[in-house]
């Protein structure tokens, strides 16, 4: 898979496109929350609207990863 970052920015979400080795294209979005990077991509065909947070700010904004 190849991920291409776009220039679009809506409500903190930035565009991305995932292309598979068989040339299938999945539009999506990414956003950084503290130490985390959230991504979403779907077989929806453009345009795919950016996700909406259920809680503001999202819980990951102040979280930190743990390794066990």
How would you characterize the overall build of this protein?
With 68 residues, the chain is mainly β. It has one domain. 0% of the residues lie in helices and 46% in strands. It has strands at 2-10, 13-19, 25-33, 36-41. Strands 1-2-3-4 form a four-stranded antiparallel β-sheet, with no helix packed on it. Strand 1 (2-10) and strand 2 form a beta hairpin.
Mean pLDDT: 86
What's the helical proportion of residues?
under 10%
- In percent, how much strand structure appears in the residues? over 45%
Uncertain ranges = none
Task: Give helix and strand order, one letter per element, not per position.
Answer: EEEE
Number of strands: 4
The biggest beta sheet is recorded as: 4 strands, antiparallel
- What strand order characterises the main sheet? 1-2-3-4
Secondary structure tally, helices:
0
Overall morphology: globular
Distance between the termini: 29 Å
Radius of gyration in whole Å, from Cα?
13 Å
What structural class do helix, strand and pairing data support?
mainly beta
Q: Assembly type of the shown chains?
A: single chain
Q: How many domain modules?
A: 1
SSE topology sketch:
Layout: E1 2-10, E2 13-19, E3 25-33, E4 36-41
Antiparallel strand pairs: 1-2, 2-3, 3-4
């Amino acid at each position: 898979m190849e991920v291409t970052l776009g220039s679009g920015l809506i409500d903190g979400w930035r565009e991305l496109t995932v292309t598979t080795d068989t040339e299938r294209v999945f539009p999506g979005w990414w956003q950084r929350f503290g130490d985390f990077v959230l991504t979403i991509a779907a077989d929806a065909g453009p345009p795919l609207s950016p996700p909406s947070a259920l809680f503001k700010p999202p819980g990951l904004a102040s979280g930190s990863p743990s390794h066990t």
